[in-house]
Specification:
Blueprint: H1 11-41, E1 55-56, E2 62-63
Antiparallel strand pairs: 1-2
């Protein structure tokens, strides 16, 4: 294929996308850290923190699936 046929993105578009992804990751990580910190303050520990045990909704709000009501 001709290299000129590939769509290109301006570096500012890529930087904006990278910043948005970083901000989203930071929002989720902050919530997880706050939850772990709150549990530590209560002298309680979660023994299985993994991506399989964390729910993130469309607004990037985090919850533990065991604390969510079942349908």
């Amino acid at each position: 294929r001709d290299l000129h046929s590939f769509p290109t993105r301006r570096s500012s578009d890529l930087e904006s996308q990278a910043f948005a992804q970083h901000s989203q990751g930071q929002k989720v990580a902050t919530q997880l850290f706050q939850a772990v910190r709150q549990m530590a303050d209560m002298n309680t520990w979660h023994n299985d923190i993994s991506v399989n045990n964390i729910l993130v909704d469309e607004n990037l709000n985090v919850s533990d699936p065991r604390s969510s009501p079942t349908p």
